[in-house]
Amino acid sequence: MWIILLCSLVALTIIFERLLTLRVKSVAPQNLREQVLELVMAGKLDDDKVRVIRQHSPLGEVFAAGLKHMGSGKEDMKEALEDSGKQVVHRLGRYLNTLGTIASITPLIGLLGTVIGMIKVFTAITAVGVGDPTVLSGGISEALITTAAGLSVGIPCLMFYRFFRSRINELTVVLEDNALALVDAASLGGKLGKGGAGKR
């Protein structure tokens, strides 16, 4: 039970942290895309503005990687956006393996506790006999508590694990869409290399 309780505390911490981190407005703020594309089209980018964009959000980090390679050509810019996007998506999935592991092992830990409890019950029966049925039923019910506790932790953890994985997939699509919009804007109006971004 102590192991299950510890797992539940770790899982709750991860769930609340990921709920805050994986909000769309935190990962890909709606107004950031418009602001960056306007700067690109106007050719008003410089290293300081790119630095501010990078620190803005995960989407800003992806944008900054592409903006720094505007002067290197479209393909290099796409590659930089892709590499940065992979790093951002990897960070979005941080701690989820731990949450998935907790979802998998807590029911097994609960089952192990039940098995150990049942072994103790039958050992007691072997030693003193079945004298009082209430003692036997009480021991069995106590042993089953660990299985119930393990399932009570494991099922919500599995649900949140699936939910977060789905959210990350959605955010990945949003990041890709914004990255393509930046490439198009740079190709059409910002003309690679203008505005100072990517130059030292």
Task: Write a compact overview of the structure shown.
The chain is mainly alpha-helical and about 200 residues long. The chain has helices at about 1-20, 25, 30-40, 45-55, 60-65, 75-90, 95-130, 135-190. The protein has one domain (about 1-200).
Can you give keywords for this protein?
84% helix, rod-shaped, single chain, mainly alpha
Strand content: under 5%
- Structural class by secondary-structure content: mainly alpha
The protein's oligomeric status is single chain
- Give the proportion of residues in helices: over 70%
Q: How many strands appear in the DSSP assignment?
A: 0
What number is the mean pLDDT? 82
Overall shape: it is: rod-shaped
The main pleated sheet reads as: none
Termini, distance in Å? 59 Å
Radius of gyration: 27 Å
What is the number of domains?
Answer: 1
Distinct helical segment count: 8
- Strand and helix order: HHHHHHHH
Catalogue the unreliable spans: 190-200
Describe the structure.
It is rod-shaped and about 90 Å long. The N and C termini lie far apart (59 Å). It is built from eight helices and no strands. The model is unreliable at 190-200 (pLDDT under 50). The protein has one domain (1-200). 30% of the residues are buried. It has helices at 2-21, 24-27, 30-42, 47-56, 58-67, 74-92, 96-128, 133-190. The protein is an all-alpha fold and 200 residues long. Helix 3 packs parallel to helix 8 (133-190), helix 5 runs antiparallel to helix 6 and helix 7 (96-128) runs antiparallel to helix 8.
